[in-house]
Amino acid sequence: MPTPLSGLRVVEIGDRLATAYAGKLLRDAGADVVMVEPPDGHRLRHYRPVGVPPREAESPFFAFLAGGKRSVATATVPAGLLAAADIVIVGATPDGAEELGVDVDALRTVVTLSDFGWAGPWTERPATEFTLQAWCGSTASRGEPERPPIAVGGDLGEFVAGSYAAAIGLASHHGGGGRSDLSVLEAMTTSMQVFSWLRKELMLLEVVGRSTEVPSVERAKDGYVGISMATGQQWQDFCAMVECPDLADVPELRFQVGRWEQRDLVRARTADWFAAHTVEEIVELAALFRIPMTAIGNGETLRTMDHFEVRGSFVDHPSGFRAPGPPWRMSETPPLPAALPPRLGDEAPTWPNREPHSGAAGLPLAGVTIVDLTAFWAGPAATHLLAMLGADVIKIESVQRPDGMRFAGGFRADVERWWEYSWVFHGVNSGKESITLDLESDSGRELLGRLVADADVVVENFTPRVMENFGLGYDVLKGFNEKIIEVRMPGFGLDGPWRDRVGFAMTMEQLAGLAWITGYPDGLPTAPRGACDPLAGVHAAFLTVAALEHRGRTGLGQLVEVPMIDVVLNASALQVIERDVAGITLTRRGNRGHEFAVQNVYACAGEEQWIAVSVRHNDDWQALKTVLGQPNWAAALDYSTESADTIDTHLAQWFAGRPLNETVETLLAAGIPAAPVVQPPDVIDNPALRARGFFQTVEHPLCGPLPYPRPPMTGDFVRSPAPLLGQHNGEILGGALGLSAQELERLESEAVIGTWPSGL
């Protein structure tokens, strides 16, 4: 069978994980991907996590990322290779690209990917994924108040940035080409915090401080279970399940903020219940209550879980280990099978030149119409990116069940339509139009069919049973429109024993291993807090464009399945691979991570003044010793994991008496990645984000002017604010579908449409 990107030529330049993952996504979807490596090879060829013994063979993680690609080993990128490519991904700063001989202005479709982007004041600043987490407001919110803030383990930000690079690069190619200037910091700001600057603006609330969810990860009789609750009903059901029904009657506990404030009470009342039950008993009971709950997975346990075995989630890699397969299924165009990585420099292509072109005049997805049936975060993040790239997105809710994100996180008592003030809803729904349709009614389904008839794509992220219960399976949608592309985003997939379980991003993070490697070494696993919602969304956007590419060549629509759990398994693939190859179960290292010998968060002078520092290699260590004044203790220590504890102790003492911002600038000037641990709402003051126009102010009809985030690349993309519930009923149902005023009134009287949630 053909692949969606058959014939597409991609050149991947750079040694960071994000570019490698972008190239992997494109290769697995059928593109011919050529890696440009330095003469001594890609950095990841020799990658070995801290704690894994030395080995002579190349990194199996590199084999996972580079399988099926080709390799060109050179200090200067051949101009002919670039001229013949359809997409070029440049994982370098402007200075780095110049050293490689890459002229981005001469390329057909190019994505530049760097820590702070090519435009702006911080272009050449040193950074790591760890320090970018601190810059973007992710680290500050996570952890216990009496301990340092804690970063997410596993280089999650690199996977986020790589998926954006693949999606935006492919969309740009689809729309005629051009240049996209991506910032990893911006990608992480849209994904690894919850639009806290909008929360402060809309809810008039100050920063909460470090916390974890209550309940979150709990000790069971034989392991850990993870819990993720987003609704008041789930809290009430949880109280009944753990045999504490009186807790459901405490008003302060209905929201997460109140449960955090009363965490000692909640934990004391529920700990014995968890300790008396096995993980399997708890998870099975939670499924009956429709509560998102899961076992905490890791590199050892994931491969043998029944659901993954039934679905074939892990595949045999020809390099000799088990690894996650591509995180999607497509009815007409399956992904390519796993393949060996290239040997260094042995597979240079002989592509004929492409015809040059001047690039697209407008947004790349202009003219594409999307019917958006998504809710909460992952699905709306997918359609939001597509809307920002030019697609016309019609968001469909109902007055019976509006998007649940409108009600998540609390409400304002001083405004009438308080459901229009949800900050995450605003963050991922700008640029869309909203109508309401009761899809349980004949009239609602008939009107949906008329919309689908003129659409290109339908996107939904319900549990699988919902569309079936509506009577709106893919075959029914094809009856409305033979060429329709349906993108389904179930949490656990369309089949398997867990298909109908409820799951949010934190559920997937807890299950797939990200929580296992996040947290204090002596503490419980800690969920990254929802970052995998937008990660799954960007993957779905990428696959939407891939399906559009295939339809453009063949005229065929298809069903696309993008389970969130499969996306998260790919982001935590290193754990499964190293367990298989080295027999090592990677675990929590606090802020030290698994890549650098020396890395941590340190307290500076003053209250809650924290600095994040990565010492990447010996050159950084020598530079740091100079900054420290060449103390005697440092002269006796080399850059190694064996010296890390001693170095860490001395660094903690040195930072403790120094001012935060001045110290950050001193380290950066010496070429050492460093960052203040920024409180989430304060990212709005970041000079690089402001200079690049990341925040785009748009007037909302109720909330006034709001600083909406754009996609993580320069340009003006936010065309309209997040819509009011049913705001465009008249415009779309009355205009595009031609319903009369009398018909609209009748539909509203029957609650098929409306602008006010039922029961409020």
Would you mind describing this structure in some detail?
With 760 residues, the protein is α/β, with parallel strands linked by helices. It has 29 helices and 23 strands. The strands form 6 sheets. It has a 7-stranded mixed β-sheet with strand order 12-18-17-16-13-14-15, sandwiched between helices. Strands 3-2-1-4-5-6 form a 6-stranded parallel β-sheet. The longest helix has 23 residues, at 532-554. The chain starts with 8 loop residues before the first strand and ends in an 11-residue tail after the last helix. The mean pLDDT is 96.
Provide a compact summary of the structure.
The chain is an alpha/beta fold and 760 residues long.
The major β-sheet equals:
7 strands, mixed
Structural class: alpha/beta
State the CATH architecture of the domain at 598-685: 2-Layer Sandwich
Tell me the span between the first and last alpha carbons.
51 Å
Tell me the number of helical segments per DSSP (H or I, 4 or more residues long). 29
Query: What's the arrangement of strands in the largest beta sheet?
Result: 12-18-17-16-13-14-15
Compute the CA-based radius of gyration.
Answer: 25 Å
Mean pLDDT: 96
Q: Kindly report the name of the CATH homologous superfamily of the domain at 598-685.
A: formyl-coa transferase, domain 3
> Into which percent range does the helicity of residues fall?
25-40%
Shape: globular
Q: Using DSSP, what is the number of strands?
A: 23
> Would you give the CATH topology of the domain at 598-685?
formyl-coa transferase, domain 3
- The portion of residues forming beta strands comes to 5-15%
CATH class membership of the domain at 598-685:
Alpha Beta
Low confidence ranges: none
